[in-house]
Amino acid sequence: MTPFARVVRIAVLCVAVGLSNASFAQQAYPSKPIRLIVPFPPGGSVDPIARMIGQKLGERLGQQVFVDNRPGANGTIGTEILAKAPPDGHTLIHLGPGTHVINAVLVKNLPYDSMKDFAPVATIQRSDYTLVVHPSLPVGNVKELVALAKAKPGQIAYASSGNGNMNHLAAELFNMVTGVKTYHIPYKGAGPALTDLISGQVQMHFSVTISALPHVKSGRLKPLAFGGDKRFPAMPQVQTFAESGLSSLTLRPWQGILAPVRTPKPIIDRLSAEIARILALQEITSRLATLGMTPLITTPEEFAALMASEYARSAEVIKAAHITLN
User: What percentage of the chain carries pLDDT values higher than 90?
Assistant: First the structure.
């Protein structure tokens, strides 16, 4: 055998061993506990869902899935940790569009590329917004609200959970599709926004339905429209936006799980399949329903398309409404 042929043979063997090792690593996945980053403090709307899914996923994979809360900078601290993690499927993140999609549009000089540095794994759930107003506002439906807002441009105030928050964009999208002018009062979270709405300091708010529901039942808030595809069972009298004549106003924030880019596709596909099986469980469906959420099962490719679509839509609203984080 010539020296050149010997070198070629060694190179081929090395490639074969490398591929074999990579294949073995994927077959052996997971080989250690899985870290599921939640870029928010414990509690809230993301953390309990991540813990519920993480526990079930750990049972199915035969390895512990532990939640690692890394709050700060509207989710960018935890997301940056994922971007720098090894792409081996042992570090994941559970987040929503406010953290991932809207940050990509609004935040300059992010330490990662939201659309390129992550691999979509699976969506988890959709929530729904309900447009609620203070009971003193003399309207009983969306049509009447639009008429009142047009008669009093700039005089109806809406609360949001903060500049660039999903419900801020929802209100501005409402302004865009109806041609009204309401003005924005941002708060530091949904709690303070609802408090001032109930007290009458502001007149309207796009609230996560489950947060508004107790106040609707007590009569302290008046619901005008629901953002889901169908009416919410706990408020069957409330029309959807489509039924109110605003079919383009679909308001359904999601939660999902991402991995670092270059995570092997067999690992992504296995995680996606396991999560889909978990979301189909009756106990998970029932638990999500009590929180005003519905399971959202997609393939990684469908999840990627969802994020791309919402990025384009969010960018359009942010540009038209001149939204900044200041």
Answer: 69
